[in-house]
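Help!! Second protein's tokens look totally different from the first
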Amino acid sequence: MSVPVIPQAPRTASVDARRWPDVARLPKSSRLRTAAAERFVRHAIGQLPLRVRLAGTAEPIGRGGPLMDVRDPHAFFRRIGANGLIGFGESYMAGEWDAHDLVGALTVLAEHAATLIPERMQRLRSLWAPKQPDRHRNTAEAARANISHHYDLSNELFSLFLDDTLTYSSAIFRGFPADHQLLPAAQHRKIDRLLDLAHVGPGTQLLEIGTGWGELAIRAAARGARVLTVTLSAEQQALAVQRARAAGMGDRVTVLLRDYRKVLGRYDAIVSVEMIEAVGAEYWPEYFMILDRLLAPGGRVALQAITMPHERMLASRATHTWIQKYVFPGGLLPSTEAVQHVTDRFTGLSITARDTFGPHYAETLRLWRERFVARAAEVDALGFDETFRRMWNLYLAYSEAGFRSGYLDVQQLQLTKVPTA
């Protein structure tokens, strides 16, 4: 039985051109380039377990699976033709396409990320892919602006979808599926594993790089450690200080608004949770050399890092992505091989333990995303518009899909500094 044609008008809801200029207007693109993008997308989707229904057509393209509804095919293909995956994301922000099972659709795309683009085009990536803007390089001057872009949005925004610990990194659950009330215990389980890896206990002089909202520092202080924690987010610093005092740990926790490159002293242990992703590849050697310099002989570093396959990291490290443009400017996920190479070449640190738990991040992100969507009215009340909500929903769903597909992973690493003779 044939599927009836479902007419769908292009989206008419307005997008604030001052806040979202590249979403509000279509990019310049030749008819040839738009047509080429349409041919490419049709061919690629035709090979996937995914359905894409173009407005005004009868039959979806694809081999079955999650359904994407493209409400404005011309705008959709024009954006992709002009800006590739950035255009794909901007088209979603503009409401030109949607999916009831957004994570499912994105998971299919993530599972085939390495083969969607033909090999001959991959080899020419440097010619057609957009380059990272110089302003996003994580110099000491620019890093604070990059961090502020995301983390200084609003403490109230993050509190709407995080749990009461305000922990913004992967939790570790006892089993799946989980629900939101299990998040605090799962976050403490993750934190305790990191503190155990770093051998944090009574009297430990601990440095934390990347404060978040202070939960790890408070938990380390409760073990008897003295904690110096540094952040580039003014919003996070203010709330972390307040939370440490409320927990009775104000005398054991010092929170500084400071770049990790400006930290002085020697520490028995260093912990950093999902901060290396914001360092940038050109600064990875400096980052690990600073860890080496700050760590006392015999000390330990515990890192939690999101990683991606090495070949994909090499292929994309110089290009500009939708996530970098709208969510994490200057960010880049390392690979396990890159971390190993940098530490071996530039430091006296050795990786002495490693544990991966990608499915736990997928579950964490699911809980955050569901809560974010459920509290849309409260997001609006904070002054964020629909375009922002669609951007944030895509970011959370895109990330969840990365972990569900295995394209992304998360791991805890222990690095040990061997005492010199």
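Here's the second one for comparison:
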Amino acid sequence: MTTSTRGAAKTPAVLVLEDGRIFRGRAYGAVGETFGEAVFSTGMTGYQETLTDPSYHRQVVVMTAPHVGNTGVNDEDPESERIWVAGYVVRDPARMPSNWRSRRSLDDELVQQGVVGISGVDTRALTRHLRERGAMRVGIFSGEAVADDAALLARVKEAPQMVGANLSAEVATKETYVVPAIGTKKFTVAAVDLGIKGMTPHRMAERGIEVHVLPATATAEDVFAVNPDGVFFSNGPGDPATADGPVAVMQAVLTRRTPLFGICFGNQILGRALGFGTYKLKYGHRGINQPVQDRTTGKVEVTAHNHGFAVDAPLDKVSETPYGRAEVSHVCLNDQVVEGLQLLDQPAFSVQYHPEAAAGPHDAAYLFDRFVSLMEAERA
């Protein structure tokens, strides 16, 4: 991605999809060019959390909500230290933010971090196109980057695809760090950072867990050196078929029968560790209003999602795996995609969505309590 300084709202911009569909609008954020996978997010709020979610690395996010930036940008809500989206597409950006916590406009934040975006686009038409044709490569061009349509399309087709992309190490911490327990320490957890969001270790710390966050390249020896009561595998970007290292670490954890919890990418890693395959969804699940049923209780949750891949596991039976019996514990009610796995013969489970997020707003918070219960039972 190349960028220049902030462009005025009147600067022309062009969005080019790899199938040749073109949308024209105005520059939003930095001026220049960027490439990525075009995906859409259905959240009406939470754009700041979306932008700073490492799972969106190398993705150009289309916001289906028509008005974006109304509450500006604050310093409390980011999920990481930077914006990770490759590009940003909105219909009607706020002319002036209004919120008591706002410190600057979203436009200014995008400029400061060099994120190329486009506004004035018919995002409903673009979203319908992606739903029908599937997520695909895209480029956004503004200012001097704008050229002949055919030349821009050729450049989009040269961009790397998401299938086969190994991205976790690009967004994860390079050094181990510790998030202390809030109040009395009850447990120690080793968290493998595949693109972890800041709220995740905080949710565990609230429950008396000291969290040791390890790089995506951590080995089983690194994990066990923490002497953990439980092991956590985080969300993250890329194709789970490339994550052989984390899969091997998880298999070592399963062999040792240490309580295990995974979310999002971690769910896909558990699927692979158990012997299931993964596949790319046509356009994925992204937003904070996704209905998921916990099949162990029958409860339906409103959940936050950000995934373009899923686990290929049978919904209608218990499966035999090298680590005991496993079953699908959660399912998306929109399309019956696997949203969770659990082992029946040892303490391990995962979900495909984000329980640390405030969708619902607290529908999925119980999953951290379930993790605590597994560690309590193992200690007992």
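Reply: Different proteins will give different token patterns, so don't panic. The two ends are 53 Å apart (CA to CA).
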